[in-house]
């Protein structure tokens, strides 16, 4: 078998394991060797778990030999964002308070991926509590973008995106609270999917009823994302907002068509300032859907500013609830920009928060009305390409995220797919959004676009030619 096993997609790896042409142990060892060689350059992983990965791979190989594979991901390694609790494995949350925390339980997401037979390579880098669109914290060096290590891979699932982009495993789990899967997917040149709220249940959680976040895949291909969604989706009574029905098979959705669909294209959601190169690349990508048989219409959007007015104070309230006491106890353990959100949250009262929730309902209704007319909405994923990994830019966080957070507020499914490189050779992403609970349509559209405009899912690293 080739030494370039890291180039295989999850779908390709699974098929080779099924046919007996690839050993899960061989694949896992190849990826662990690549992690050992490259992680010091990109800081994609906070914790690598070679013993667990090898144990999982040996068990997967034994099942394969007996013809008893658990499914298409059995023996195909994955990584978890270091916000997901993992039994017996350090889970830092990107925070000094929990830098040595070892949970006694798996989260629902960790448990469902473990049940597939997929070996766990490790826990990927995240900012403190996943609070921003870069991946640095006070535990160690920042995650770096494999396309240009002086740049950020994005955040907060930046370690996951960097891992996939550098060929450190084809499957990575991320979490998306204001774009934290789609942001690094766009900046790092990989596929990222934020599913509808409730498709992937959350446990444990203390914010079901005010949630912005959901788990989602970061992968080399849309088919790989579909395989991961199949593993993670489905109801669970521990999450009261879990969608209480059997989800579709997303690998079947990969075969769907966009022919005849009505597609809305918005270059700015009515208010965003977009880099001219990004604007040109994404506009051309949106027009690709006409070649696929859809009708594409540029539409005026009047609710983008409403989303911005909701998200910023909501973010402060969210983080003051989590960090107020900690910030008083050890302010030096709270990043300066996170401390600003905590201070902002202190200025918000209960009445203001209640009004924000009402405005969030208004935003959902206005987005719903768009999908009364159109089947899909296309936008740039990000208004710019990757910026320096350090220090933080001067522009406010939500100025950089105008296209992502609206759909955390409304719960609509969205994906980012690579659609080109700018003049500096940095990836650009196209965002695909569909109506509530039409995750299958997002996957179908992403798959058709990927087929029409193929992409090399790994950064061109020295020595990989």
TrEMBL record:
Pfam families in alphabetical order: Amidase
InterPro entries recorded: Amidase, Amidase_CS, Amidase_dom, AS_sf
Amidase domain residues: 26-442
Family from the record: Belongs to the amidase family.
Name used for this protein in its record: Amidase
Organism: Actinomadura rugatobispora
């Amino acid at each position: 078998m080739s030494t370039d096993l890291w180039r295989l997609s999850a779908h390709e790896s699974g098929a080779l394991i099924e046919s007996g042409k690839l050993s899960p142990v061989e694949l896992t060892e190849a990826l662990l060797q690549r992690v050992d060689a490259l992680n010091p350059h990109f800081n994609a992983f906070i914790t690598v778990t070679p013993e667990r990965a090898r144990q999982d791979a040996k068990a997967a190989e034994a099942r394969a030999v007996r013809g008893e594979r658990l499914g298409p991901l059995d023996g195909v390694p994955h990584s978890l964002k270091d916000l997901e609790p993992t039994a017996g494995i350090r889970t830092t949350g990107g925070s000094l308070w929990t830098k040595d925390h070892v949970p006694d339980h798996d989260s629902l997401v960790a448990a469902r991926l473990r049940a597939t037979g997929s070996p766990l390579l490790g826990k990927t880098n995240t900012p403190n509590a996943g609070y921003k669109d870069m991946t640095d914290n006070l535990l160690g060096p920042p995650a770096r973008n494999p396309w240009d290590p002086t740049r950020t891979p994005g955040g907060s699932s930046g370690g996951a995106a960097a891992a996939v982009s550098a060929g450190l495993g084809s499957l990575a789990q991320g979490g998306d609270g204001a774009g934290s899967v789609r942001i690094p997917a766009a900046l790092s040149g990989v596929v990222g999917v934020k599913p509808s709220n409730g498709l992937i249940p959350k446990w444990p959680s203390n914010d079901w009823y005010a949630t912005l976040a959901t788990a989602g895949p970061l992968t080399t291909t849309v088919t790989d994302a579909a395989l991961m969604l199949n593993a993670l989706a489905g109801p669970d009574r521990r999450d009261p907002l879990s969608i209480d029905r059997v989800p579709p098979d997303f690998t079947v959705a990969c075969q769907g068509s966009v022919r005849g669909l009505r597609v809305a294209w918005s270059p700015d959601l009515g208010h965003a300032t977009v880099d001219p190169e990004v604007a040109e690349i994404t506009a051309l990508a949106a027009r690709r859907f006409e070649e696929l048989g859809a009708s594409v219409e540029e539409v005026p959007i009047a609710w983008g500013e409403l989303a911005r007015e909701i998200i910023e104070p909501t973010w402060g309230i969210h983080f003051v609830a989590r960090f107020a006491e900690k910030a008083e106890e050890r302010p030096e353990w709270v990043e300066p920009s996170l401390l600003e959100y905590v201070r902002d949250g202190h200025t918000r009262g209960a009445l203001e928060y209640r009004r924000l929730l009402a405005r969030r309902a208004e935003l959902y209704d206005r987005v719903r009305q768009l999908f009364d007319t159109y089947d899909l909405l296309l936008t740039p994923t990000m208004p710019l390409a990757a910026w320096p990994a350090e220090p933080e830019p001067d522009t406010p966080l939500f100025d950089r995220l105008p296209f992502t957070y609206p759909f955390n507020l409304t719960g609509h499914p969205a994906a980012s797919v690579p659609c080109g490189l700018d003049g500096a050779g940095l990836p650009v992403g196209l965002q695909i959004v569909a109506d509530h609970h039409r995750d299958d349509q997002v996957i179908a559209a992403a798959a058709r676009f990927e087929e029409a405009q193929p992409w090399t899912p790994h950064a061109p690293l020295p020595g990989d030619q």
